[in-house]
Amino acid sequence: ERDGAVSRWRQRARDHVAEGMPHGVFLVEVLLAKKKFTGMANIGYRPSFQKADALNLEAHIFNFKKNIYGKEMEVKFIRKLRDEKKFSSRTQLMAQLKKDEQRAKRLRMAR
What we know:
By secondary structure, the protein is of the alpha+beta class. It is built from 1 helix and 5 strands. Strands 1-5-2-3-4 form a 5-stranded antiparallel β-sheet, with helices on one face. It is globular, with a radius of gyration of 13 Å.
């Protein structure tokens, strides 16, 4: 489990948030304001875009549209979906993320 404040995309994550975790894409459970949500998260250096100089934790909560920047949340890692990978185009990355989301939702239903 990891916790921390939600920051805007491309801002540097606090280094300790993902320290010691394997890199890749994960099925996650997010605890936010005492409510549980399901989503997926990536831990890594964002190799498909401008490579980050620090390890990042990026989480996507399924079917969630609220502005939560600056809020504290806890991320529980349920299962690794795949390793971090560099894609040659944004289109390829987006197609893989769609597959990752479909797989994560299937695994969530099986729990």
